[in-house]
Amino acid sequence: MATAELRAEALLTVREESYLLIVWRRFRRHRVALVGAVILLAFILIAVLAPWIAPYDPYAQNLLLKNAGPSPAHWLGTDELGRDVLSRLIYAARISLTVAFVVTLISQTTGALIGAISGYFGGWVDNVIQRVVDFMLTLPLLPLLLTVSALLSDVTLPGLTREWSSVVIIILVLSLFGWMGSARLVRGVVLSLREQTFTEAARALGMSDLQIVIRHMIPNAMAPIIVSATLSLGTVIILEAALSFLGFGVQPPVPTWGNMLNNAQADMWTQPFKAIIPGFCIFLTSLSFNFVGDGLRDALDPRLKR
Amino acid sequence: MTLTQMQVQTSLDLSTDQDLVVVRGLKKYFPVRRGLLQRVVAWVKAVDGVSFTIRRGETMGLVGESGCGKTTVGRTILRLIEPTAGEVYFEGRNIFALTKPELKTLRRDMQIIFQDPYSSLDPRMPVGASIAEGLAVHGIGTPKERFEMVVDLLRKVGLEDYHARRYPHEFSGGQRQRIVIARALALRPKFIVCDEPISALDVSIQAQIINLLKELQEEFKLTYLFIAHNLSVIEHVSDRVAVMYLGKIVELTSREELYRNPLHPYTQALLSAVPIPDPTLRRERILLKGDVPSPLNPPSGCRFHPRCPVATRYCAQEEPPFVNIGTRGQEHWVACWRVM
User: Fold this and answer.
1) Residue-wise pLDDT tens digits, B93-116
2) What is the CATH number of the domain that holds B69?
3) Tens digit of pLDDT for each residue in B139-196?
4) Residue A266: what pLDDT?
5) How many domains does chain B have?
6) The sheet that has B191-195: what strands, in order across it?
7) Per-residue confidence at B13, pLDDT binned at 50, 70, 90?
8) What is the pLDDT of residue A8?
9) Is the pLDDT at B212 greater than 60, yes or no?
């Protein structure tokens, strides 16, 4: 396709780096965002290296050692089936972060594309898309997610066990309801870009509308898209945790912070740390994503040149 | 037969092989929408029946006040805006009848240079990529060959090869306009619409860009439609000049004839406003009363009559035809009752 070939243009490299350098320099000045970034990097590292870090198999049960408290062998104790809580926590980071990243990737990309189309073509296309967005935004999110997840909770995807199907389904469901924000955002940006003369120049050169959207609209809307994606990561973590906590998200034994929180409820009064620690993980990642998003928003703001 | 048909008829007879672009009865009305249902409540008649031809290798000047529709003419000729009515022939082909792929191919032959060099380049794209974009879209050359062509073009417009990797914000307005010109030239077009290409530039830069455009015209055998509101610039660059008022051409003739013998009272008023660089010379200024009427609701009869110093009652009733009154084979088209 012509667009793919266009991207191969060899002229892009040198200055692009220096632009990133400027952004990095501005981002670094944002202390809180920097702390957030470090925390997130740590979480990501833990998630990636889980098989080497985790002291036990997160699925290995030891029924003789149920609901144990902290000990040198099990730092955070064991759960109701005698599985090592620390190992499950580490593997849960994998699932939670993967879900967050994949959902964000899908929802922000589709959102950006839909928004760009809406803003670029305008007229009745814009009207229809914006009314759909309005409609989606007025739906109460959590009850809706619960209903849809509940409806789909018995579905098993081919080639996957029921538990892993639930991971894929939760990704799809969250993506389905997560694209409106970025669609709105990108539409606004494209609405103003469309009026710029370079759009007309591109048409005079013979570019198709789709090529213009992909080559000119989206790259120019990239800064707000990145910010919105970062903020969305935090939201998705919370939503996934909420659904899993309520039992409609990722199904046990696959560990996520949300369903670990659910499991810990039974011993809430005797071993509160088993609830507090996954809760703290959710809180920390989500907060960090928000800080990093704020930092990026400032760093990418084109009005602040330096 | 109505007058407009007559006018179309005559311009048809005049079109020859020399003509690169033939515009016939071009109209562009923009809808004014109001209310919840976005109903069309009125039409802005930006271009209302314009006919002219552009000959191969010449520069056709198009002058007029702001809002008279000259930019709309330029964009409609390139089919960047769809017309309301009329035809535009480019090398004998009606460009409004072309299919999308045909139009894309034709775009290689006709390009445009815009007024504002600041917004006509994508800020997120190195200028080399901007210049190469047309080549890439039309699948001309490998990326490496395209890069060489870009370097070549940059030198042609007076820039350096290392500029290719830079971003638009690193250039001045004049340099950006050179880049825009390079981009327009990349596809080796035959025809370029220059839409006020120097109005946004410093006076000191304007002459450079004009001269560059003239050099390139000679080197590449280009045909220009040069749109401007500055009569001195038009006099400098054009072979023939068309004067527009409120969506219509009121006078069209060769540059020499227009500046020596302007016939339409509007042209006379415009020319009398051009400053003379000699303080001892005085000339009678023709001051126009009032503002340009709204193209939403143009005056009856001759559109210029409410501001015309020599208008009669008849001018308000009947629209004057656009006729050729040149003598000895000269062309001098004018639309004015007082001249006929």
Assistant:
1) 899 999 999 999 999 999 999 988
2) 3.40.50.300
3) 888 888 999 999 999 998 989 888 888 888 888 888 999 999 999 999 999 999 999 9
4) 78
5) 1
6) B110-113, B191-195, B223-228, B59-63, B240-245, B248-254, B332-334, B323-324
7) very low
8) 42
9) yes
End-to-end CA distance of chain B: 19
Q: Do B122 and A220 touch (CB under 8 A)?
A: yes
User: Nearest residue on chain A to B163, judged by CA atoms?
Assistant: A11
Res B216: pLDDT? 92
Query: What is the C-alpha to C-alpha distance for residues A125 and A277, in angstroms, rounded to an integer?
Result: 48
Of B78, B104, B119, the CB nearest to A196: B119
Q: Is residue B92 part of a domain?
A: yes
Which has the closest alpha carbon to B95: B20, B44, B43, B29? B20
- On whether residue B128 sits in a domain, the answer given is no
Q: How far apart are CA B332 and CA B256, in angstroms?
A: 11
Quote the CA–CA distance of B252 and B330 in Å, as a whole number. 11
Question: What's chain A's length in residues?
Answer: 306
The length of chain B in residues reads: 340
Using the predicted structure, report yes or no on whether residue B289 has a pLDDT greater than 80: no
Q: What is the pLDDT of residues A77-103, one digit of tens each?
A: 787 777 888 888 999 898 889 999 999
| A165, two tokens | 């199907």
- Which residues of chain B have a Cβ shorter than 8 Å from any chain A Cβ? 75, 78, 80, 103-105, 107-108, 110-112, 114-116, 119-126, 128-130, 132-134, 136-139, 143-144, 146-147, 150, 164-167, 180, 183, 187
Assess if residue B150 is contained within a domain: no
By residue range, what is the domain housing residue B48?
3-109+189-334
Q: Rounded distance, CA B150 to CA B154, Å?
A: 6
A13 CB contacts (<8 Å, ≥6 apart)?
B165
Tell the residue number behind the tokens 């006709």, with chain if given. Answer: B110
Q: Are B86 and B49 in contact (CB under 8 A)?
A: yes
Kindly determine whether residue A5 and residue B136, on different chains, have CB atoms separated by under 8 Å. yes
- In tens, the pLDDT along A30-52 reads 889 999 999 999 999 998 998 89
The ipTM assigned to this model is 0.83
Q: Is residue B304 part of a domain?
A: yes
What is the identity of the amino acid at A172? L
Q: Which of A6, A15, A216 sits opposite B136 (nearest CB)?
A: A6
Question: How far, in whole angstroms, is CA B19 from its chain's centroid?
Answer: 16
Query: Which pTM was predicted?
Result: 0.79
Count of CB atoms within 10 A of residue B340's CB? 11
Token code pair at residue A57: 């198999």
Beta strand B248-254 pairing with B240-245: antiparallel
Where do the domains of chain A lie, and which CATH numbers do they carry? 26-300 (1.10.3720.10)
| Main-chain phi, psi angles of B63, to 5 degrees | -115, 160
